[in-house]
From TrEMBL:
InterPro entries: ITPase-like_fam, Maf-like
Site (Important for substrate specificity): Y12, Q72, E154
Species whose genome carries this gene: Zhongshania aliphaticivorans
Protein name: 7-methyl-GTP pyrophosphatase
Keywords: Cytoplasm, Hydrolase, Nucleotide metabolism
GO molecular function terms listed in the Swiss-Prot or TrEMBL record: nucleoside triphosphate diphosphatase activity
Pfam families: Maf
Entries under PANTHER family matching the protein: 7-METHYL-GTP PYROPHOSPHATASE, BIFUNCTIONAL DTTP/UTP PYROPHOSPHATASE/METHYLTRANSFERASE PROTEIN-RELATED
Gene Ontology cellular component list: cytoplasm
UniProt-annotated location(s): Cytoplasm
Role noted for this protein: Nucleoside triphosphate pyrophosphatase that hydrolyzes 7-methyl-GTP (m(7)GTP). May have a dual role in cell division arrest and in preventing the incorporation of modified nucleotides into cellular nucleic acids.
Family membership noted in the UniProt record: Belongs to the Maf family. YceF subfamily.
E.C. number(s) listed in UniProt: 3.6.1.-
């Protein structure tokens, strides 16, 4: 079996891939996300391009490996909800999302044997109506300052939602595991 590399330093993506019970390593892709975001691409296309760029970056120096790269974009009424980086910006984003639906777009690219495989999953996220006190308390507890949309679904952030509709629930954390397992199996990995 070829070496598998996850082109990500996200602890949550690492934990997800560990669920498939396959050996893999991680590597940090050096991708300038901001310059691509500045091009004004469609949000699905942006997510797909970023996941491919991350996988290509690591694959370039690991040609004999299977490389997995992923990206997520939160989108509300045509605007990207980037990582807030401050509590004030997180409060603003969550106030906007409160009581509304938005999209969480997760894309995953797998590069192996000179071929690129690409998949996107769009989740429709319906957030509960939240009071200012609930939003502030959530931010203080979960500190979602480096999470798109200002929430961490793998932690307390799941409690902010009343409905999530998507084809693969695992995609909301960062990796659509059903598609990943199927694709890795087709590439020769033993899953399960």
């Amino acid at each position: 079996m070829k070496k598998i590399i996850l082109a990500s330093t996200s602890i949550y993506r690492k934990q997800q891939l560990e669920r498939l019970n396959i050996p893999f390593s991680t590597a940090s892709p050096d991708v300038d996300e901001d310059s691509l975001k500045a091009k004004g691409l469609d949000h699905i296309e942006l997510s797909r391009k970023l996941s491919l760029l991350k996988a290509r970056n690591i694959s370039a120096s690991n040609e004999n490996a299977i490389v997995i790269g992923g990206d997520q974009v939160a989108s509300f009424k045509g605007e990207i909800l980037s990582k807030p980086k401050t509590k004030e910006k997180a409060f603003e984003q969550l106030s906007t999302l409160s009581g509304n639906e938005h999209q969480l777009i997760t894309s995953l690219a797998i590069i192996a044997n000179g071929q690129e495989y690409l998949h996107s999953c769009i989740a429709i996220m319906k957030m509960r109506a939240l009071s200012d006190a609930q939003i502030s308390r959530y931010i203080d507890i979960d500190e979602p300052l480096y999470s798109c949309g200002s929430y961490r679904l793998e932690a307390l952030g799941i409690s902010l939602f009343e409905a999530i509709n998507c084809e693969d629930y695992s995609s909301i954390i960062g990796i659509p595991l059903m598609w990943t397992a199927k694709t890795l199996t087709e590439l020769g990995a033993s899953v399960p």
